[in-house]
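Today's session is about reading a structure prediction critically. Students often jump straight to the picture, but the first step is always the sequence itself: look for stretches that repeat, for charged clusters, for runs of hydrophobic residues. Only then move on to the predicted structure, which in these notes is written as discrete structure tokens rather than atom positions. Here is the chain we will use throughout the hour.
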Amino acid sequence: MFTVPRLNSPRRTGGPLKPTRAPLAAAGALALLAASALPAQAAPTIKAAPPAHAASTAAPTQAADANKNPGPPSDTKPGKGAHSLRTPVTGENFYFVMADRFSNGDAGNDQGGLGPDPMVSGFDPTRKGFYNGGDLNGLLDKIDYIQGLGTTAIWLTPSFKNKAVQPEDNSAGYHGYWVTDFTQIDPHLGTNAELQALIDEAHSRGMKVYFDIITNHTADVIGYQEAARTGYVSKDKEPYRTASGEAFDDRDFAGRADFPKLDAETSFPYTPVLDPTEQNLKVPAWLNDPTLYHNRGDTTFAGEDSFYGDFFGLDDLFTEHPAVVAGMTDIYETWIRDFGVDGFRIDTMKHVNDEFWQQFGPDVLAYAKEHGKDEFFMFGEVFDTSKSFTSQFTTRNEMQAVLDFPFQDAARNFASKSQDAKQLEAFFTADDWYTDADSNVYQLPTFLGNHDMGRIGSFISADNPDADDAERVARDELAHELMYFSRGNPVVYYGDEQGFTGPGGDQDARQTLFASKVPDYLEDDLLGTDATHATDNFNTGHPLYAKIRELAQLTKEHPALREGAHQHRYASDGPGIYAFSRTDAKDQREYVVALNNSEKPQTAAVPTYIAKRNYRLLYGDAAKNSRTSADGKLTVTVPPLSAVVYQSSGRIPREKAALAVTLQAPVSAAAAAGTSAGDNGRIQVTADVDGTSFYEVTFEARTPGGKWERVGTDDTAPYRVFHDVSGLNPGAAVEYRAVVLNNAGRTSVSTSRSAVVPDPVLTIQQPAEGSTVQGNVELVATADPEKASHVVRFERSIAGGPWTPIGSEDDSSPAYTVADDLAALDLADGTEVRYRAKLDGSNVMSNVRTVVVGAAPQPDSVTVAGSLNSEMGCPDDWQPACQSAFMTFDPADRLWKLTADLPAGQYEFKAAINGSWNENYGQDGAPNGSNIVLNHDGGPVTFRYSHASHVITAG
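Below is the predicted structure for this chain, in token form.
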């Protein structure tokens, strides 16, 4: 594969400890880097490809490889057309289940062998933050119920042995994220033998079993000599030190065998300590070594500390250390070998360094294949709604897939909130971010809600407070129709098929399917039924269970609805119809799907591939047959909050000649219009095809003098890829061409076009533009794309004067900082100061950030306003005027502070100024910025707000 992984290049000599040899990487990637390391600003070399021509050769199917090997599949040669990749996992139906909350098949294991005290055993069926009694035997007993939904894969929440209770959190490890023994099933859930029995039974029925795994943290066992669960200390303030006391940046050695030796007494900003009774608590034994953890304090889930900080005290593993990479790889390979696990969902993927995934993913996949698991599949949790970011984990980081959080957001907006149908058009058009040579959007698991954020039933109830039950059920069904008929692998969160709701996420979204004794759960109003949580809810006649079963059966009978190309067709202005077609590359029979998110019937003329052809209704309440017009449009009428599916009476007419394909000028993906947040480490390459039928366009790339290698194949217009060039040097020339495969198997090749790898983009993140500053001002800059070899310098200009250096250069990625002591300059209040950052060894300069010297005038009040307000004692959530959520100003450090005791859950919040939304600040201090997400395990949490930077944090 031409995509080059992000490598850690050695930095300049001198200064703190630096690496002495090249980092671990594929030899081919190193060779490609060497070939393409042109001087900055070098002009691209453009080599003309042969003119576009027709070829009668039929295209081979692009084979899926269990390993993400470089280069195109062996059965497809460069310059030949290819079909878009489909892996064996593009037809999966997942059932995501928390074993403790599903069914209690063995009451004898409820206490986990720890006795009756809930604060020891963690078992209390009356409390939602404790074990409630479900187990693996319960899953086995009810496997008919699970399979009856059309389930092909059971996905279990983490099931390893947990620390039963963490007293500081006043909660238990029922959820599985406080692991102490990675080799044993939690005794509350059963035994390893009972897990094997469940897997064997699932396999005998043709179902797979997926594990939810954790690679970056364990239970909270390590304390700090200085204080428990204390604030984060950055690498700039306290760098890591070798056992001999020499400072170094871990990113220079990430995943490498020559990672420096560490010492618990000298290497970390905090000194790790273990209770004598817990020194050997963790299994495998290597996990008891405190030098294999980051030891930097609690994260605020932003910036550098999102990679290095403890999640509410949970011991954060040093994933840059090769011993951690090897240890975690061995743990999960053992579960593949000994138990036949079919795949992994990987927790908190975005909080782990890239180099870990670039080794862990390919190694585990290769091992699974060696042990007969050709369909082994891994997907990660990247809690973000920007495709330019989430897709980096499947392209740059070589993982197979990520959970489709952007889809969840889009589906809720469409089905629950009835937002503009054109938002779905824009959403699906951006799917090209995921396309590379060995993965694409079709293998992403899609979902509507989960155990962290909350259920789709909860969202629908919150978004439509005045709706009756019939409307809420209809919206729930519409959301599932969108999920089952569009690209991706649908995930049903247990209980959604019974209309479960709940007031929020985390514990509020983890109800039991068996009869509950939790008072909060008994208050829930379930959709589509008069039942409550006071009784078992395994009703196969529930309307949502029946709907999901129907959708699974229909897509099984018509696999093009799951694996076919997803082509946008029509979108209403405002609420109304969103329509798309699904077409299998081999069968080429077109399916038209139209969904209506308005509360009135809607009619639309939907473009298709075929003119004057009959289309038969397969699904929904509509005309049984419809015929396309001379210009290929199919008129459909869709009832309110419903979907219809039509199937063409025959295949798409074969084209008799190959068509011309032309490349647009490749551009930086950061600067391309309509690419959301963008990614400066990729180049957008777009092809125009002179036709209107079903086509598949393969993009190829090479460096000057190199061989053509596949970037990826796109089967939906507009045809494009976002080629990852983050591993190439700025100024390196890259040549592109496109090969179009038409619906008759004929190919044409475009003339090539060249591009230059763009310079990195430096951005100053702090201080905020226009803010008032005094004393020590912390400057923070980031680079896109980020490389461990970057060195950044900062400069200042006072009152329009010359630019002068500040402090020393910073080479500690991923955030570059310096402190500017303005107090020493004795500047008058009102003086304008400008800052900028410069990338060492280049002409790359950041944006200019302007601030004003002086004491920031403080507002009358600051409110922590968000979905946590009701838990703080406010009458409702998102209450900027609620005094219970008011912060208190501390003149000593000029910060506003509030400590609140919150139950476990996932919350969102912002800072609201002077009791209203007129002035508010979100993520990174942005005015009217996005909500800040807080994943909280329960207990006290302190919020801090600076009116100088407008940044609000929780920790």
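Discussion point for the tutorial: The longest strand covers residues 642-651.
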